[in-house]
Specification:
The protein is α+β, with helices and mostly antiparallel strands and 485 residues long. It is 17% helix and 30% strand. The termini are far apart.
């Protein structure tokens, strides 16, 4: 430092005489002490008063604080009030925006208090800046739609999974909340069709997006596709190990017009209606019901289409084979006429077995129409003239049955040679009369004495219950019959 600087530094300010109006600490009365920080705050307040508008008019300054937006824009705001039918949202506009309860959520009939809370910051889409009542009308639901569509389209493009809770059961399926309303058809809820959808409400499901149409606001989902994808390895292994001809046990999972699906423990196989029974089946429900445990035979495994064909009747006795094993051509069988056709009549000769009596085999004389000889429901004897097991056909004859012949084994007890007299008249099987009790080689007469009868001369029937010193008897007319003492 220079000598001159040192000289300046040493100069002191001469003491001045205080202004008469200013009180010194010694002469002034005690007063509130103002700190330097308080003085600075007072200065700042003065500056705010004079400089805050910066040359703007007050109205321009107010307009500058208002958010600018148009119909269809998405805005953010703070929930300031919740009523039963609407919610007020402060978005920095000259008035709060109104969100009607129907515009709060994609769910129907929701309580606004369950959707938002006070001070929540949410997004809403501007429906109209000013309705007929001068209100700013907003929609939280549609803002959610706009955001969700972008996400859903991206997930669809990447073939990824979407998840959401089930919020409603509708005709034909379920509605999922995935940011918008996603429709899950009932046939795609599970690997097999589910009849009762109510238990799914409230559950969060993962699904694949199979159809997307933004213009129609339509999203179709498939949980089955997701399950099939996640279970593909298990399914491939199951199909590889499944061989035609195997006998498997399963549970009927669903019954449809063309057959029944059976859960084999890994996949469902189809039992076509023609494979349910050896008999004619009008509808599968005549044979099986959902939940029935069944034993089936594997007919075919299609690895490419991942389909399994099953047969229920293949595990059961073939009635045609059983009939062919127990009957021969030229035997007589007893049957019932089931149907008339122009060329003859069908006769049921066994359980599920029908044979045809051709019109030429109905009578020895010429027959114009089957109705001239038989009627539906009529029972009669027919002779077997042919059995074609491969084609499942039996040819019968009425006129040849009239000539006589050997009866089939199942009828011999009732219609064997012993059932006819010397003149050929049918007298039926021989039945021994139970009029004597046999003990050893001797016949023992049983005598029953009736102690008393209410009305003299009444006829009564009695049954011997024991052969002893005392015999009990029962009267068939309600009278009291007591054993003789």
């Amino acid at each position: 430092m220079s000598e001159q600087d040192e000289t300046v530094t040493e100069v002191t300010v001469p003491e001045q005489t205080p202004d008469p109006v200013v009180e010194t600490a010694e002469t002034a009365e005690p007063a509130e002490t103002i700190t330097l920080e308080q003085e600075l705050e007072q200065i700042d307040e003065a500056l705010v008063v004079f400089d805050d508008l910066g040359g703007q008019s007050f109205s321009d300054a107010v307009d500058a604080t208002i958010v600018e937006f148009d119909d269809g824009d998405i805005v953010k705001g703070i929930v300031v009030k919740i009523d039963n039918d609407e919610v007020l949202l402060d978005i920095g506009y000259k008035s709060e925006g109104v969100i009607p309860s129907r515009e709060l959520s994609i769910r129907n009939d929701v309580d606004p208090h369950e959707v938002v809370s006070l001070e929540d910051e949410i997004e809403a889409l501007v429906l109209t800046k000013e309705d007929k009542d001068g209100r700013l009308v907003l929609s939280k639901k549609r803002a959610q739609y706009e955001r969700a569509w972008g996400t859903i389209e991206e997930l669809k493009e990447k073939d990824e999974v979407v998840s959401g809770p089930v919020i409603e059961v509708v005709k034909g399926g379920l509605i999922l909340d995935i940011g918008l309303r996603g429709f899950l058809p009932a046939s795609l809820v599970d690997l097999r069709r589910v009849r009762d959808l109510a238990p799914f409400v409230g559950r969060t499901l993962e699904c694949k997006i199979i159809e997307l149409d933004r213009n129609r606001n339509n999203v179709v989902l498939s949980r089955r596709a997701y399950l099939e994808e996640t279970q593909r390895e298990q399914r491939d292994e199951f199909l590889t190990n499944l061989k035609p001809g195997e006998i498997r046990s399963g549970v009927v999972s669903s019954v449809v017009n063309f057959g029944a699906f059976v859960d084999l423990g890994g996949m469902d196989g189809l039992v076509h209606v023609s494979e349910l029974s050896w008999k004619h089946v009008e509808h599968p429900s005549q044979v099986v019901q959902v939940g029935d445990e069944v034993t089936v035979q594997v007919l075919d495994v299609d690895l490419t289409r991942e389909r399994i064909s099953l047969s229920l009747k293949a595990t059961q006795q073939d009635p045609w084979q059983e009939f062919a094993d127990g009957h021969e051509v030229d035997q007589l069988v007893y049957g019932r006429v089931t149907k008339l056709v122009p060329f003859g009549a069908f006769v049921q000769v066994g359980d599920g077995i029908e044979g045809l009596v051709h019109i030429s085999e109905m009578a020895s004389q010429h027959v114009e129409a089957p109705e001239q000889v038989v009627t539906p429901g009529e029972e009669l004897w027919v002779k077997i003239i042919d059995i074609d097991l491969d084609r499942r056909r039996i040819s019968l004859s009425i006129k040849q049955a009239a000539e006589g012949g050997e009866v089939a084994a199942e009828y011999r007890d009732q219609f064997g040679e012993h059932a006819y007299d010397d003149q050929g008249n049918y007298i039926g099987p021989v039945i021994e009369e139970p009029n004597a009790a046999v003990a050893g080689d001797a016949e023992v007469e049983v005598e029953v004495e009736v102690a008393e009868v209410e009305v003299e001369g009444d006829e009564v029937e009695v049954v011997a219950l024991a052969v002893a010193d005392e015999v009990e008897a029962v009267a068939d007319d309600g009278g009291e019959v007591a054993p003789e003492a």
